[in-house]
Design goal:
Pfam families: HSP20
Radius of gyration: 21 Å
CATH topology of one domain: Immunoglobulin-like
Helix content: 10-25%
Strand content: 25-35%
Keywords: Stress response
Protein name: Heat shock protein Hsp20
Family: Belongs to the small heat shock protein (HSP20) family.
Length: 153
């Protein structure tokens, strides 16, 4: 019996890229790198995309969350890690309506991001504006620089 295979020129690349992405994530975890980023390049298929910046007294995480409602986002902080978990829900269709084309995805997501220093979990704040989540993570007192005065002898 003769079997027919459908040629997909992108199929083999998808598998290879997902394996490379898995390896990159594992290496990042082992090396203590910020999750989701190696050499400044985002991994394929990661959602949400994030930026992490640092000031003297805080970290600022921004994440792209278009179409996600604030009540569908959960943020957690444990030690040097901040988690962003949630879901982008599909729109309600009118009774009897069907999709003609459906290209948009409605994924559940869960990102855990490593930070270089501990944060004060009690003072963390977050807001979602125009599809961009901004999380302010004040550094823990132990992580802040201390000024030491020098006395003359």
């Amino acid at each position: 019996m003769l079997t027919t295979r459908i040629f997909n020129p992108y199929g083999s690349w998808r598998g290879a890229l997902s394996e490379v992405d898995r390896l990159r994530q594992e290496m990042g975890r082992l090396l203590g790198a910020i999750s989701g980023e190696v050499a400044g390049l985002p991994s394929a298929g990661v959602f949400p995309l994030v930026n992490i910046s640092q000031a003297e007294d805080k970290f600022i995480v921004t994440a792209e969350l278009p179409g996600v409602a604030a009540e569908d986002v959960d943020i957690s902080v444990v030690g040097k890690n901040v988690g962003i978990k949630g879901e982008r829900k599909p729109p309600e269709l009118p009774e009897g309506a069907k999709f003609h084309r459906r290209e948009r995805a409605y994924p559940k997501f869960n990102r855990m991001l490593g930070l270089p220093d501990e944060v004060d979990a009690e003072r963390v704040s977050a807001k979602l504006t125009d599809g961009v989540l901004t999380i302010i993570l004040p550094k823990a007192a132990a992580a802040l620089p201390k000024k030491i005065s020098v006395n003359a002898a």
